[in-house]
Write a structure and sequence with these properties.
Radius of gyration of chain B: 28 Å
Number of strands of chain A: 10
Largest interface: A-B, 39 and 37 residues
Largest sheet of chain A: 3 strands, antiparallel
Shape of chain A: globular
Oligomer: heterodimer
Number of strands of chain B: 0
Order of helices and strands of chain B: HHHHHHHHHHHHHHHH
Number of helices of chain A: 16
Largest sheet of chain B: none
Radius of gyration of chain A: 25 Å
Chain lengths: 330, 346
């Protein structure tokens, strides 16, 4: 009796499994590309980039996309050690020297400047302060009036690339000698928190931050003019070994999409699309500001970009993908 | 459209729902975008795919129903509203902590090593009366100094020193109060549970709005709130565990409550209290790295640098440095505890 029942159960289980397999197989028939892994860095603009790329790859090219939450240095290391993930996007390569080494070795291909204007790094003051005291828009004005900026410079945490540059610049401009105490933050969260706290009470603030970020989309800040850019001086400022520090602002940072060479060989169509995938600071800034105003999630911000800028991303696609996404490209 | 739309229609709330629709379109979800692309309305989900009637799901069905993010935003706005009042109350209370930390850091940093190291060894010897331990501590300190980690280790010691003392000074009275009142104990235990499990960053970032992030009291509070729990729990336990017969005898002798506390209960509870102090010191050391995330100086900064730059060696050595400091403090307090116990068993 029991044997019969378990026998029939087994038969129906096998039948169900076969149905799943066939059903599953049917959907795979449309897959043009295989499994793809892409990084999602833990800041807002990177989230938008990854979600947009994921949508286009899944809906336009039929890929099965796995999102890997990551950060700049871990992503570069993972590429170096494991050759994974396939796509590393929003790589701020100035902060990951190991990435350039990988490029030289041919393990990784940089295919696009995903932020076409480059990332912006500045010493900033809040807009309300700049409006009240326009002389603070230059570094000379700040050094002459340290009490107006709160007598303090908010420095990057240890381990960020900007920390090295700021430590060089603070010597070159002699911040401490001019009555500005340099406060080294322990983490990016406290740095961001200090901006938010200052803005909440309209208190003075002077320090480093970078764009495009949700924070700068929310709190308007004005850069302090550090003078003309000098590449030689900046290279020395970036280098912990170099002592001849000098005065130079930050250049725009290269923010790239990198893919492993194995992936590039495997999926040339997808790589072609990714090489065109890029955002201007104006576009990204607008999306992040919209995200802040509407209290939206990163996915919704990506959707906003896809619906608002459909003339922009239409050009990234090949003909096949364009036909699949025709309804959205109208 | 949402799964639960029929419910709202049935309840006659259609017009209220429609009034909530944002003109110009609010955020569109990815699911809706995919549906747009497919050109059909998303098919009604089967029973296996039916979503829970959460706030977001009901919002899908009825635009006037608030989303769950309204709740979190409301909390944030509420906090920003009360922060000025809170700051007025909390700032002066916690200011002494800033002074102590700044003073201790100044002391440990400016005292030259040839005074500091012998002084520390003298303290260890007096407290533990163990030559073996003193030699071990000496070797550790000299190794730190030799590998250029002395200033970081001194800063960490200064911070732990201040925080551990404040934990004991604040925690033991609270433990005693808890031991005497069951109601107080029932009220405080959930708070202790929360302090031990709530991630520190959750309350630290809002604290940046109350105090300036440059104040040492930010990381002082982080360490104290986490590390004070063992000493409170074990003081409470120790006093409650005092033999009721002894308490009865004390009552028979006509001792006042205060005399009982000072002369009977605390001395008998001392082993448990000392165990609590030992654990408090250990837990404050475990908070070193989180404290460095909110700008505390010391070995935590090196650990973070190692993590962020993937300098594995730096991370390992500074992590081991924290372990060594923990071992030193643990052995010293354990030997002090053993001496107190030995003094007890006359």
């Amino acid at each position: 009796m029991n044997g019969l029942i378990s026998g029939s159960l087994k038969a129906s289980a096998v039948a169900a499994a076969m149905a799943f397999a066939i059903g599953g197989g049917a959907s795979d028939a449309h897959a043009d590309c295989g499994e793809v892994s892409i990084t999602e860095m833990n800041w807002a603009s990177a989230s938008v980039v990854t979600n947009v790329a994921k949508f286009v790859m899944e809906q336009g090219y039929g890929c099965k996309v796995t999102v890997v939450p990551s950060d700049t240095v871990p992503a570069a290391t993972s590429l170096a050690e494991n050759g994974e993930p396939d796509i590393a996007t929003e790589m701020w390569i100035n902060s990951a020297p190991v990435y350039q080494k990988l490029e030289a070795e041919g393990k990784v291909k940089t295919i696009a400047n995903v932020l076409s204007d480059g990332g912006a790094e500045h010493w900033l003051i809040p807009k309300y302060l700049a409006d009240k005291h326009p002389e603070l828009k230059t570094i000379e004005g700040v050094l002459a009036n340290p009490e107006l900026v709160g007598g303090r410079f908010h420095n990057c945490p240890e381990g960020w690339g900007c920390r090295i540059v700021n430590d060089s610049l603070k010597q070159a401009f002699d911040l401490e000698g001019n009555g500005i105490e340099v406060f080294d933050h322990g983490s990016g969260e406290t740095l961001a928190g200090s901006i938010a706290a200052a803005y909440a009470d309209e208190k003075p603030w002077f320090g480093y931050y970078w764009a495009p970020t949700a924070l700068l989309g929310k709190y308007e800040m004005v850069p302090v003019d550090l003078g003309p850019y000098n590449d030689e001086i900046h290279q020395c400022n970036r280098n912990t070994e170099c002592n001849r520090v000098g005065k130079s602002p930050y250049p725009s940072a290269r923010v790239v999409t990198g893919v492993t060479t194995t992936f590039a060989d495997r999926e040339p169509e997808v790589v072609e699309m990714l090489s065109k995938l890029s955002f201007t600071n104006q576009q990204m800034g607008a999306v992040l500001a919209w995200k802040e105003d509407n209290n939206a999630s990163s996915e919704e911000a990506a959707v906003h970009f896809l619906t608002t800028y459909n003339d922009v991303w239409g050009d990234w696609l090949n003909a096949d993908a364009k036909s699949k996404l025709a309804r959205l490209l109208k | 459209m949402g799964t639960y739309e029929p419910i709202f229609s049935a309840l006659g709330l259609r017009s209220w729902c429609e009034s909530g629709e944002q003109s110009g379109g609010g955020p569109v979800s990815m699911a809706d975008l995919l549906a747009q692309n497919a050109g059909t309305d998303a098919p009604a989900p089967s029973i296996w795919e039916m979503p829970f009637p959460s706030m977001d799901e009901l919002h899908e069905a009825c635009a006037a129903f608030p989303q769950s993010r309204v709740l979190t935003k409301g909390l944030e706005d509420g906090f920003l509203g009360i922060k000025d009042g809170l700051s007025l109350v909390l700032d002066p209370i916690t200011q002494p902590l800033s002074w102590f930390l700044e003073g201790a850091l100044w002391l440990f940093e400016t005292t030259p090593w040839w005074i500091m190291i012998p002084a520390l060894l003298a303290v260890v010897l007096v407290v533990s009366r163990s030559r073996k331990l003193t030699v071990f501590v000496g070797l550790c300190l000299l190794t730190f100094a030799f590998i250029d980690y002395y200033s970081f280790a001194a800063q960490t010691l200064a911070v732990i020193f201040v925080c551990a003392i404040l934990c004991v000074v604040l925690g033991v009275p609270i433990g005693i109060a808890m031991a005497r009142s069951d109601r107080l104990q029932r009220a405080i235990i959930p708070i202790l549970d929360m302090l031990q499990t709530l991630p520190a960053f959750v309350y630290l970032i809002p604290l940046i709005f109350l105090f300036s992030v440059t104040e040492p009291k930010l990381y002082g509070i982080a360490i104290i709130l986490y590390a004070i729990v063992p000493v409170i729990r074990l003081t409470d336990l120790g006093i409650r565990l005092v033999d009721p017969d002894v308490i009865e005898a004390a009552d028979a002798f006509g001792m006042t409550d205060r005399q009982k506390l000072m002369k009977v209960q605390i001395p008998l509870a001392l082993p448990n209290i000392m165990a609590g102090v030992n654990q408090t010191i250990m837990m404050s050391l475990s908070m070193v790295v989180i404290a460095s995330l909110v700008s505390a100086p010391g070995l935590g900064v090196l650990v973070l640098r190692g993590i962020r730059n993937l300098e594995l060696g730096v991370g390992l050595v500074s992590g081991l440095g924290i372990v060594v400091l923990a071992v030193i403090l643990d052995r010293t307090t354990k030997l002090a505890l053993a001496r107190i116990n030995a003094g007890q068993d006359r």
